Amino acid sequence: MSLFGRLLGRDTFGRARVVVKGRVTDGGFHLYAGKVAQHRDLSGWLRVKDAFSSAPYLEIEVEGERPQLKNYILDLRKGTPDNPHITHVSIQWLEGDKRTHSGFKIFS
To answer: Which of 22, 52, 59, 76 would suit a FRET pair with 90, their CA atoms being 20 to 30 Å apart?
Structure first.
């Protein structure tokens, strides 16, 4: 981002596509991921991919204030006390400086 964009505060907003691998269907981890996004005032969506396979994963598109996004990704990497078995989190930062989603949705 340009210096002008940073001066206007545009670098405080971010958007990312995140893939989470591990035991994402055990213990309701996908529900936890949705609640944490809402708690951090992030918007977007998530869905469980390959839910009935031996290797399901979460696909997440999330947007909001960049510090909250970074903390959200850290939360995903940690897992939950009941389900700490997250093996991989990949992040693709996307372009954009304003919200395109309203709220956070969980798709089955």
So the answer is: 52
